[in-house]
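Exercise 3.2. Students should predict the tertiary structure of the chain below and write it as structure tokens, then compare their answer with the key that follows.

Predict this chain's 3D structure.
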Amino acid sequence: MSAESKISAFLRRYQVFIGMGVIVVGSHIFWKKLQDNPSVTRNYDKKEYPWFEVKEIVFVLNSIINLNNLSPFQAQKAYEKRQAEMEAAAKEK
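Answer key:
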């Protein structure tokens, strides 16, 4: 058996595990980048965010994009503006 056929057999046999490993590692890296991005997260001092908060942020960004026909970058800016208005209103109380 040649080296190429051994590699091919290995990849064919374990393609599901290789694919799932790439997905797990990629999602882990994405999650850490998301936590380090202060423009997306609400609380800048903590690093682990509950799932419902992430779902809320994604829902708000998607609704802003869909309702106003904005690009994701414009939606992020609109979200930041909305958060600043909410924080200013909370400080006034």
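Discussion points: The chain has four helices and no strands. Residues 42 and 53 are 9 Å apart (CA to CA).
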